[in-house]
Amino acid sequence: MEEDIKKINARSISPNYFITELHPDKFTKGTFFGNKVVFGQFFNQDLKGKIRIYEDRVKGWFLDHAKALLKENNADFVVLMICTSYLEGCQQFKEGSSSGGKSKEMIKRALKSLFHISEGQEDILDIFVNGARNGLFHDGITKERISINRDLPVPIIFKKDFGGMIVINPILFFWVIEEDFKEYLDELKNPENKDAREKFEKHWDETHPLSYPKEQKLQ
Question: At a CB cut-off of 8 Å and minimum separation 6, what does 150 contact?
Fold first, then answer.
């Protein structure tokens, strides 16, 4: 009966994984059935397990939804917001350290790496951070020097019109982000890439505590 089902203390750490009181030092896979969760296989909280959770988290909570929204006419701002969030989040893992109040510089390094922006195009980086990232996250809309155009043949371009502005194709921009994440996961899963794996785990361990919170209960 419903009232006889034991309630298990648990914390969700990604769409498909939890930390539970049954295995507080493991990652436990769980599947939702209505408002209940059926727990299944569990995994070690080692590097392989952390990569598994990171992949499930970024895809299941962010990129999969952005991809689904690409077919919607009025979803460009949401797609761009998700992509912009990815820039800083993933760059921290790649560098092995938190942005620590220097989000702007972290995002600029990510942009330069992903979109091959040269040293002579620094203006595009500042405009993106101020107009796209800050505009979306602080005001809910990009600022006046950012233009969205799905017909643009490239993901992002700087134009001198109106004193200098950036035009972004959110579909192509997302494709670059999605491909970068695939490549990064492949890099992390290859034991030969020791530097990338060490930096990933360093940032994870510093900012992703995996202790089981006794005060929270799965309802």
Answer: 76, 169, 170, 171
Torsion over CA: 199, 90, 133, 137 (sign): negative
Using a 10 angstrom Cβ sphere, with 0-12 exposed, 13-18 middle and 19 or more buried, the burial of residue 90 is buried
- Top pLDDT among 161 and 16 is at 16
Tell me the per-residue pLDDT of 118-138, one tens digit each, with 9 for 90 and over.
766 777 888 999 999 999 999
| Residue-level pLDDT at 35 | 72
The CA-atom distances, in angstroms, between 136 and each of 64, 103, 139, 171, 187 are 20, 15, 6, 17, 31
Query: How buried is residue 147: exposed, middle or buried, by Cβ count under 10 Å (0-12/13-18/19+)?
Result: middle
Question: Are the CB atoms for 176 and 120 separated by under 8 Å?
Answer: no
CB within 8 Å of 97: residues ≥ 6 apart: 199, 202, 203, 206
35, two tokens: 């408002």
In this prediction the pTM is 0.87
For residue 133, the number of C-alpha atoms closer than 13 Å in the C-beta half-sphere is: 22
- For residue 180, give the amino acid letter: D
User: Any idea what DSSP says for residue 116?
Assistant: T
What is the Cα–Cα distance from 26 to 16, expressed in whole angstroms?
Answer: 14
Q: From edge to edge, which strands make up the β-sheet containing 10-14?
A: 10-14, 17-20, 26-33, 36-44
pLDDT, tens digit (0-9, with 9 covering 90-100), for 160-211? 776 778 999 999 999 999 999 999 999 999 999 999 999 999 999 988 766 5
